[in-house]
């Protein structure tokens, strides 16, 4: 039996603009998807049985649907089919069966403490976990570059037109400087001034967004370019400035840049009234906050030199603040005797 563990991710900056070729800074974080996989006579996903050939056919149908959606620039149908988690896992399993052509099926058990659809890369971590578990089991191969490429293909099923940033962060871990179409670069020299800046971040789940990542990305794509394009450009600039601020451990600039990021994301209609109200309180207290990932709810990332102060504000707003460890290791594997 093989065990795979994959971290979630969080965008420090650059969500959405990364889809348009701007850079993003994405950190792997200490929430994980864990998978156990072994060979079996059919496909068992968390105890539910599926026929092997039917699983492959399902995946092929999803691939055809993706091609159609891409041609029509409308991913609504794909998004609605993928709202059931099992459908995504089933299509992903079918994709791996098709690509590896094993003679047996699998029993795959998936557990996750990454909140679903909340901007923490739950689906990217599942994609990476499925690819890593199938290739470890059937090919005895664990190559992060290859895992990442195939995980990107699976991400399309859920996200339509992913940038590839999420799966890269979950696969390689650490802090990534990511730009679509380029190899991601691990940022090893962050917080070099021993500033402890990464202890000053907390997260809170503001509630599962009503729309999926696929729908939110599509909405941004349909936003009037005269509003969207300057926002995307500025987010790109912010990412470069954030790199310097993080490397120098410059708290004041980090605060300004997170807040400028949020102003931009809000202009794209990615805010919610509850998040806005909490973020404005955090700002008044000298801190910074933004929603993360596709937005419209989900994970709030907040920063303050006095972390206890924002904890209190988050609590008072009715949410549960949580510490996070950023820059954790990417996908890992372990073979366990049956
Ligand atoms: O909400 P998440 O965790 O799926 O993140 C989406 C990030 C986007 O930049 C909005 C999309 C992408 O493919 O990079």
Notes on the structure:
With 338 residues, this protein is an alpha+beta fold. It is 46% helix and 20% strand. The protein is built from 11 helices and 12 strands. The strands form 2 sheets. Strands 1, 2, 3, 4, 5, 6, 7 and 12 form an 8-stranded mixed beta sheet that branches. It has a 4-stranded antiparallel beta sheet with strand order 9-10-8-11. Helix 1 (52-72) crosses helix 3 and helix 5 packs antiparallel against helix 6. The model has no long low-confidence stretch (mean pLDDT 95).
Entry summary:
With 338 residues, this protein is an alpha+beta fold.
Write the layout of secondary structure elements.
Elements: E1 2-13, E2 24-40, E3 43-45, E4 48-50, H1 52-72, H2 76-81, H3 85-100, E5 105-112, H4 122-139, H5 144-159, H6 165-172, E6 175-178, E7 185-186, E8 201-205, H7 213-221, H8 225-248, H9 251-267, H10 273-284, E9 288-291, E10 299-303, H11 307-316, E11 322-323, E12 332-335
Helix pairs in contact: 1-3, 3-4, 4-5, 4-6, 5-6, 8-9
Bound molecules: (3R)-3-hydroxy-3-methyl-5-(phosphonooxy)pentanoic acid (PMV).
């Amino acid at each position: 039996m093989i065990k795979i563990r994959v971290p979630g991710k969080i965008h420090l900056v650059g969500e959405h603009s990364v889809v348009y070729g701007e850079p993003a800074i994405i950190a792997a974080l200490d929430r994980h998807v864990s998978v156990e996989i072994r060979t079996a006579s059919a496909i068992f996903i968390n105890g539910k049985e599926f026929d092997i050939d039917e699983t492959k056919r399902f995946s092929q149908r999803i691939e055809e649907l993706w091609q159609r959606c891409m041609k029509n620039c409308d991913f609504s149908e794909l998004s609605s089919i993928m709202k059931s988690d099992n459908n995504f896992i089933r299509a992903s399993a079918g994709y791996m069966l098709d690509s590896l052509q094993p003679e047996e099926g699998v029993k795959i058990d998936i557990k996750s403490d990454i909140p679903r659809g909340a901007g923490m890369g739950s689906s990217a971590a599942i994609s990476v976990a499925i690819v890593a578990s199938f290739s470890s089991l059937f090919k005895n191969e664990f190559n992060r570059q290859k895992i990442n490429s195939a995980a990107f293909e699976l991400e399309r099923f859920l996200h339509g037109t992913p940038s590839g940033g999420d799966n890269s962060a979950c696969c390689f871990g650490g802090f990534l400087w990511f730009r679509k179409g380029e190899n991601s670069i691990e940022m090893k020299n962050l917080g070099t001034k021993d500033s402890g800046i990464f202890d000053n971040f907390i997260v809170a789940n503001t509630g599962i967004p009503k729309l999926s990542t696929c729908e939110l990305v599509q909405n941004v794509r349909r936003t009037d370019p005269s509003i969207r394009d300057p926002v995307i450009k500025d987010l790109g600039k912010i990412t470069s400035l954030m790199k310097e601020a993080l490397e120098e451990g410059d708290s004041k600039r980090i605060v300004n840049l997170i807040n400028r990021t949020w102003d931009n994301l809000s202009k794209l209609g990615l805010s919610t009234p509850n998040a806005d109200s909490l973020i404005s309180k955090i700002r008044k207290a000298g801190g910074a906050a933004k929603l993360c990932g596709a937005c419209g709810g989900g994970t709030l990332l907040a920063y303050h030199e006095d972390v206890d102060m924002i904890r209190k504000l988050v609590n008072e707003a009715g949410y549960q603040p949580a510490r996070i460890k950023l820059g954790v290791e990417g996908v890992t594997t372990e073979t366990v005797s049956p």
